[in-house]
Amino acid sequence: MMPDGKIKNSGELEFVVFCIENIAARLGVDSKRVYQAFTEKSDILHGYIVPEYEILHTQSREYIVNDILEVLKERGVEI
Q1: What string of pLDDT tens digits covers the 79 residues of the chain?
Q2: What is the Cα–Cα distance from 21 to 39, expressed in whole angstroms?
């Protein structure tokens, strides 16, 4: 069964919020801008973060933030 990218439980929701807040803190921007970059400017939220939750949430904060920043860069998404 392929993941559909939808948030399925509170653990995934908390992880999404964690990602948004930590990217915002690293970049010194408002978390709303990060959310918009993940959802309106790209499909990173439902196309990467949620489907990769099982792997990503076991990593360190630093690893997660760096990984997502790398995905943003690869996809040419500006925050």
Answers
A1: 445 678 999 999 999 999 999 999 999 999 999 999 999 999 999 999 999 999 999 999 999 999 999 999 999 999 9
A2: 15
